[in-house]
Amino acid sequence: MFLKHDRITASRAAQLLQAAEAAARAIPPAFPLDATVAVNPFLGQTGEDLAQASTRLARVAGISLTQPRMALAEKLAAGEITDDDLSAALTACAASTKPRDLAALKAAIRETALAPEALPTVAALAASATGTDWPAIIARSVGLWAAGHFDRGQALWSPRPGHNAFAAWREWATHDLTPEIAGLEGFCAHVTEAPDTADRAILRSAEQLDLPAEAAETAFHRLLLDLGGWPQHARWLLWQAELTGGTDTTLTDLLAIRLVWEEALLAQVPAVAAGWQATVAAHATPLQPTPDQVLDTILQDAAERAHQRRLAGLLAGPSARTGRAALQAAFCIDVRSEIIRRALESQDQDIETLGFAGFFGLPVAHRPEGTDEAQAHLPALLNPALTTTSHGDTQQEAATRIAARARRAWGRFRQAAVSSFAFVEAAGPAYSGKLIRDALGLGGQAPSPQRLPRFEDQLTAAQKAQTAAAILRAMSLTEGHARLVLLVGHGARVTNNPHQSAYHCGACSGQTGEVSARLLAALLNDPETRAGLPALGITLPQDTLFVAGLHDTVTDEVTLYRDREAPGHAALLRQAEDWLAAAGRQARAERALRLPGAAGENLTRRAADWAEVRPEWGLAGCGAFIAAPRSVTAGRDLAGRAFLHSYDWSQDRDFATLELILTAPVVVASWISLQYYGSTVAPETFGGGNKLIHNVVGGIGVVEGNGGLLRPGLPIQTLHDGEKPAHEALRLTVLVEAPAEAITDILRRHDGVRQLFDNGWLHLLVLQEGRITARYRPGLAWEAFGTATEAG
Fold first, then answer.
1. Beta 642-646 vs 771-777: how paired, if at all?
2. Region 153-170: what's the mean pLDDT?
3. Is the pLDDT of residue 390 over 60?
4. Which helix (H) or strand (E) holds 129?
5. Which range scores top for mean pLDDT: 401-415, 441-455, 776-790?
6. SS3 string of 587-601?
7. How far apart are CA 608 and CA 495, in angstroms?
8. If 0-12 CB within 10 Å is exposed, 13-18 middle and 19+ buried, where does residue 219 land?
9. For 588-604, what is each residue's pLDDT tens digit?
10. What is the structure's pLDDT at 449?
């Protein structure tokens, strides 16, 4: 029944395996639910520009990477995009197939763009030929196996534990009769006869499918995308392994699995052979953007220039504030902080806020009370360098663990397939009160704070001072300290939401910022730290107190942690809490205008409502990253759309802090921005689907309905209010107040970051005295902002 396997040459084998590796690297990682962080879905395409990436993903996924042409035409008609924006974007485009002039560009906008179509797989061709939906059968079969194999504690049983994915799947597939019942005769025997390693299976399948090396990379990429989010989970496994110097083969295992299905279907349905050969020939052709794809990237660029023009109107120079601040409050750079920072500063002219990454510069792995499992509290790009814990004494810890085990056991009893019926019979009437309270949004109390976190390895006095000095310099907080300095992390209180960690702090790997803020406050208040700082060029006033806090981004309530006695600051702390409460009311009123069915004072109820699909908008709307002194943005209404990082280049020795900002926070912000972008322009590939039919699988992610493929990315309710989009798909604009020469020097040393700007995944603008003065151009070049050249 199946095709005969012939030996292939060593050189072709090497080329095919190299193509498999390239296809694997084209897949972005998807982090599990307990530590969800935003990921750039185009991580594997950052070496290409937007037009080239659009060409690739049109071929392998049938998607476009720009806003719909009709939507951009409407913005042009409404005056949101101007002729100057179009002219500047047209001039900047280097493609030979672009419209010849502005008139031709505007005429082309009115033409309907053809929707891209992915090249078909053998399964898709077989479905057309036989009427059997083979892609759906594959999705369900592989999804069922993957849910058990990759399980992280949700399932009671996992198939073939301890084996690699390909070996475990072969064991499963030789006993799964679903394909044969659907009409794929002899599939179990075919799997049994398959090679025993993924590499050998890939080579055999490539030979059986007559797949030349020049067609293999996009053909393999196409098959991996056909498996939804499971390859993205496998890419995360590889990401985690490589962070510690290891590797992982799960991605190539999944490719081999998908190829085994392809060769079986080609043999079963020989009528598709001609169509498949045409597909292979199409995969072998070089990737070349079409005039339509070039046009759409020009229009996308014009929309982003319009956004930058509006930013330039807001950033009209620095504001002045003199004298010592009564209160300083450092918030995460997260766009949700922009609203409450503005609201807090409006309470009193002597309040100053700052922006810094929410892990506060402490790269820790933290062990919460009740567990020995360490949680990363730092950006996903970094490895922990310090370990911390909130464990109490032996007796306290034992009691905490017993209570945690009881809760887990009760939860398993309540949810398991058989005992759930006994739960309903025994506890149903008593449980009804809780169900009613939750249904009305009356439950869901705020979580209690952890015990005070501490470093597990005792830091020396010198280490304390050096760590504190490095963080204060990175925060541009080396002088002018207020009597009270708040370090405010953030988290989100939501109920019945599997993506809860995605609302927490991305700089803390999907945890809240509580641990990081409390650790840093304790470090900066430590007498040994204070004593060692002057020798490092920083002196903290004796009356300066650092206090940690946590901003609940759903309710805009800020909790301050009184981790040490401070009688001399009691009155100021009470005043700070009053200011924060008033700022929270102001922020809630502003945010409620954007949330469907919300009012300022019902946001707390939404946080406790297990039926609420939009407790907040998260980072929807993010469009800019600004690294500058607060005086540049203070008093400007940036509508919760800008990441705000405090930075004063005049205090930056050797531009080390600037280098840190460009290589870490900017990259993290680009991941966030591009995840929102990808989930908006291509929701079918990079979006998370519909929250209303989500089911958690394996503790890893969600599926829609009762099985099938993992859905990574952002759910539709995160991006759309039911009538209109809540997020405008724009590539992030990075604005930095620093000499262009210093920025150029840093980009020259960091190829990965430079790629993001050279290939247009991010825009880079320079500020001088609060005004935009220059735009970065590919190749470490700059041009004046707003000049006739830029406007065409």
1. unpaired
2. 81
3. yes
4. helix 122-130
5. 776-790
6. HHHHHHCCCCCCCHH
7. 6
8. buried
9. 999 999 999 888 778 88
10. 76
SS3 314: helix
- The Cα–Cα gap between 700 and 330 comes to 33
Residue 3 has pLDDT above 50, yes or no: no
Sign of CA dihedral 407, 413, 415, 421: negative
Please count the other Cβ atoms lying within 10 Å of the Cβ belonging to residue 186: 16
Report the C-alpha gap between 5 and 530 in whole angstroms: 72
HSE-up (13 A, CA, CB side) for residue 397: 11
Q: Above 70 in pLDDT, residue 409?
A: no
Residue 488 identity: V
What distance in Å separates the CA atoms of residue 550 and residue 357, rounded to the nearest whole number? 14
Contacts of 416 (CB under 8 A, 6+ apart): 156
In this predicted model, what pLDDT tens digit does every residue of 18-37 receive, in sequence order?
Answer: 999 999 999 999 999 988 99
CA distance 322 to 615: 39
357-371 confidence digits (pLDDT tens) = 999 999 999 998 878
64 vs 59, 278, 489, 685, 761, CA distance in Å?
Answer: 10, 23, 37, 10, 15
Determine how β-strand 375-377 pairs with β-strand 557-560: unpaired
Contacts 24+ apart (CB under 8 A), 99-103: 99/295, 99/298, 102/792
Query: How many alpha carbons fall within 13 Å on the CB side of residue 455?
Result: 18
Q: How far apart are CA 364 and CA 507, in angstroms?
A: 11
* H or E element, residue 763: strand 763-768
Q: What counts of helices (H) and strands (E) characterise the chain?
A: 31, 17
Do you know the residue count of the chain?
792
Render the burial of 591-607: b for 16+ CB within 10 Å, e for the rest. bbebbeebebeebbbbb
pLDDT score for 343: 98
- For residue 346, the SS3 value is coil
